[in-house]
Amino acid sequence: MIDHHIFVCTNQKSEVGDEVAKAIKKELKLQGLKTFVAGGQKAHNRVQTCNCLDLCKQCKKGPGAAIVVYPEGIFYGNVRPKDAERLVHEHLGKGRLLNDLLLDN
Ligand code: FES
């Protein structure tokens, strides 16, 4: 298990971006994936809002926010607060990508 850093764009849609970041943070706590021990090592998953991920075209589409998950560098678009539960469970917990939100970039 590795540390993840998730950046959520709040540049064009500060409201939904902030809500998405909040929802992901809440899910990390609920699912016990904020700080945890895996393979004898402490791991952290962190969420931060940011200004622009250079995906502005995606931010203009749909009601959601653009996000990027590092270290994989996976970009998702149109992410809404309701997607936080499966993002944390699937991507961070199981290493499975959310194909319906995935951006080619
Ligand atoms: S405004 Fe969201 S990526 Fe640029």
From TrEMBL:
<dbReference type="InterPro" id="IPR036249">
    <property type="entry name" value="Thioredoxin-like_sf"/>
</dbReference>
<protein>
    <submittedName>
        <fullName>(2Fe-2S) ferredoxin domain-containing protein</fullName>
    </submittedName>
</protein>
